[in-house]
């Protein structure tokens, strides 16, 4: 009985969450998307999809950053307000660029700015020299590097990876208290992870790009065949229309010939009637002549 009640409670909570999610999308997210994604008609379809995901991530990032600051203010949590202020500026700049139709610039600027911001924060404003701080900050950088696959070019992936590589290495060399749990093996392993992830991202990016090129070629081929088919149907339709017009003309000519034949037949009948009358008149005259002679 208790399990059934728990299941019903969980089901009810999930339904309420779905309703809240739907309300959030309709009332907040959808109007914002319509506002920011107005100048992307000239962009390829894949970029339009990326721009939509990019705007959603920026909106959610703005909300999460705001909530984090509010929680820090009311709970007296230690917080570097400079970093979070810069994050706000980056997000607002991204949305403005997307609004102007400059999605590619916005995406490149976004990931690059966040990576540079985190690298500077761990080097200039280290809150701790512990291994936990290393894990929290540096693996955020890996997450941003992975996001580069979705929103940036191969060149920007390499630039972002280079900044992470040298930024984290400089942190170990210049800022780390080597007695706090860091080791050379740990930093070397981390740098190898950065290199491996970068290679995988470049490979996936190339596969995606080739797939998109293949899809575009197939789409162009399809549209070309479709145009040819439409042209053929239009030609057949035009020929059928011409044949229909010719049929109408032939029908009209036939009707005229029928009318002419009817008129000629009437004339022949009239002529025959006149000839018959003339013949009767001649016959009558002949009879009168015979009577007169007798």
The proportion of strand residues reads: under 5%
Total beta strand runs: 0
Unreliable runs, pLDDT <50, ≥5 residues?
Answer: none
Rg (C-alpha, Å): 44 Å
Distance between the termini: 143 Å
Q: Determine the oligomeric state from the structure.
A: single chain
Mean pLDDT: 75
Compute the number of helices. Answer: 7
Element-level helix/strand string = HHHHHHH
Based on secondary structure, the structural category is mainly alpha
Give a short account of the largest sheet.
none
Shape: elongated
Q: Can you give the helix content as a percent range? A: over 70%
Please describe what this structure looks like.
The protein is mainly α and 294 residues long. It has a domain at 37-228. Helices cover 88% and strands 0% of the residues. It is built from seven helices and no strands. The chain has helices at 2-36, 45-75, 81-99, 103-124, 131-151, 154-175, 184-293. Helix 2 packs antiparallel against helix 3 (81-99) and helix 5 runs parallel beside helix 7 (184-293). The protein is elongated and about 160 Å long. The mean pLDDT is 75.
What's the SSE blueprint?
Blueprint: H1 2-36, H2 45-75, H3 81-99, H4 103-124, H5 131-151, H6 154-175, H7 184-293
Helix pairs in contact: 2-3, 3-4, 4-5, 4-6, 5-6, 5-7, 6-7
Question: What descriptors fit this protein?
Answer:
294 residues, mainly alpha, 7 helices, 0% strand, single chain
Short structural summary:
The chain has 294 residues and is mainly α. The protein is 88% helix and 0% strand. The protein has a domain of 192 residues.
